[in-house]
Amino acid sequence: MAQQSAHLQQQTGFTLLELLVVMAIAGMLLALIVPRFSAAFAGARFQQQAQTLNTTLKQARYSAVKTGEILRLELSNTGNSLLNAEGDVIFSWPDDTELIFIDQKEELVSNGYVLFIPGAGSNGATLRLTQREKGLRRQATFQVSWLTGGVSYETL
User: Hey, what domains does the chain have and what are their CATH numbers?
Assistant: First the structure.
């Protein structure tokens, strides 16, 4: 009788097969979720770049008004950077991103520049920051008003 009662007690725990099934399901879920996190991370990085460029342009406008001198920002011919008149890099971007200037006729300008004039005006400019990664395209368009020198942008 003692042998039967010991044998009737339930054993707790999981079998090896149950553990393998759970691990296989968890692996499949991770395979689906991880790529989405990397895409979200790239999108957040692009938003940060757009915010940084917006801040850089607004600081340049403020600096021109404060110093009373015309401030010129131009694209670097050698790298992914925006330079001031002294040749200092004030904004740069990674290789999967590009910054281009667009003229009044909506044509791309390879060596564009922005002038901020002390009277709170500018030469007026449109800049487009574009990121291409794994078939995705993120874009932000910046407008610098010729009348006020104000900077605005929208993300597409």
Answer: 14-155 (3.55.40.10)
